[in-house]
Design goal:
This protein has about 350 residues and is mainly beta. The chain contains 4 helices and 23 strands. The strands form 5 sheets. The chain has an 8-stranded antiparallel beta barrel. The chain has a 6-stranded antiparallel sheet with strand order 9-23-14-17-20-21, with no helix packed on it.
Length: about 350
């Protein structure tokens, strides 16, 4: 049973918080001070920020008397030593979370320690450090360790019949506007590019990495987008720990929100695996069937044979012709790698 904990943490924490969980880290009187924009794609540079080591995912178990159960924690950096915490009953998204009973807490770096606070911003007995999350709340004790999850399809073997759009330096020539980003751990494809080859029905594999932007929020945090047929956008955004909307990572922009928000923390490599069937048109150009897609984000199905009633904003108008991929440039240093497509006849 989870009843005592629901009474103590997963309900009390929720009810004690006003506003969205994304805003509870502020603990200053008056309007919060606007922080300078940080946008770091280089992992060695991000590692210099002490907040980077704290943010991320934690898995563990809580105990209350003789009861014990699995839980997960997502720690989202808000800049300047402040964090939002989302405690998830059952485990992390895609790994046990039951999809409800999110208890939001906050944390702040103070005197060299990261102190946890409840929804009323009162300190609780707990801290985060050295990859360990510890907290006591009423009679419940929580202990979790930091984990770095990887997609089930990361580095997937390229099928023999695949069209490789980007696998190594030189493949940027397969893209209009193709540019290479050289970082300490490799050479990657930059944003603002459109594939020269066009596709109808396909199965595609795409890997992307979001930058470290702790001082930014919403659409200003790791924004890009994967347009297929240059018509339909699967949003790319640092929406780690957010609710999972159609304008967040994995969402089909303005049309479909993902069934679960599988966005990993910034600077973790992530995957989209997309199965797409294009819209059909008659001889007069009238649409007879909507396009459809099944999408896996980090190996977890987030869209199951969804329909596209029309093109997404910014996409070219629907018709019977094949179309290219576009990796949208929103001014944030998102990078891509291991992009391949299998055409389906």
């Amino acid at each position: 049973m989870f009843r005592p904990l629901l009474a103590g943490v997963f309900v009390a924490g929720l009810l004690a918080t006003t506003g969205s969980p994304d805003s509870i880290a502020q603990d200053k009187k008056g309007a919060p001070k606007k922080l300078a924009r940080i946008a770091i794609a280089e992992p060695t540079e991000a590692a210099k920020d002490p907040d980077f080591a704290i943010q991320g995912e934690y898995e563990g178990r809580y105990k209350e008397g003789e009861k014990e159960e699995k839980f997960g924690v997502q720690v989202i950096a808000n800049g300047a030593g402040e964090f939002t915490l989302k405690m998830l009953r059952g485990g992390l998204p895609g790994a046990g979370w039951v999809g409800k009973n999110v208890a939001p807490f906050s944390a702040v770096r103070q005197d060299g320690k990261v102190i946890i606070r409840d929804g009323k911003k009162e300190p609780v007995q707990g801290s985060i450090g050295d990859g360990v999350f510890m907290m006591k709340h009423d009679e419940a004790e929580f202990l979790a360790k930091k984990v770095e999850r990887k997609s089930k399809t990361i580095g997937a073997k390229v099928p023999a019949d695949a069209v490789v759009l980007f696998g190594a330096e030189g493949d940027e020539k397969k893209w209009t506007g193709g540019k290479i980003v050289t970082l300490s751990d490799g050479k990657y494809l930059d944003v603002g590019v459109t594939s020269k080859q066009k596709f109808g029905a396909f199965k595609a594999h795409i890997e992307f990495r979001l930058p470290w932007m702790p001082n930014s929020t919403g659409q200003g945090r790791g924004n890009s987008g994967v347009y297929f047929q240059n018509r339909y956008e699967c949003q790319v955004l640092d929406s780690f720990g957010l609710s999972g909307e159609n304008n967040e990572c994995g969402g089909i922009y303005t049309q479909h929100k993902p069934s679960v928000n599988m966005c990993l923390p910034p600077l973790a490599w992530q995957t989209y695996d997309i199965e797409f069937t294009p819209a059909q048109f008659d001889a007069n150009g009238k649409k007879t069937k909507n396009g459809r897609a099944t999408v896996y984000h980090n190996g977890v199905k987030i869209h199951d044979n969804i329909e596209f009633p029309k093109e997404c904003p910014g996409g070219q108008k629907e018709d019977a012709n094949p179309g290219p991929f576009q990796f949208q440039n929103h001014g944030d240093p998102v990078v891509y790698r291991n992009v391949w497509v299998v055409e389906v006849k």
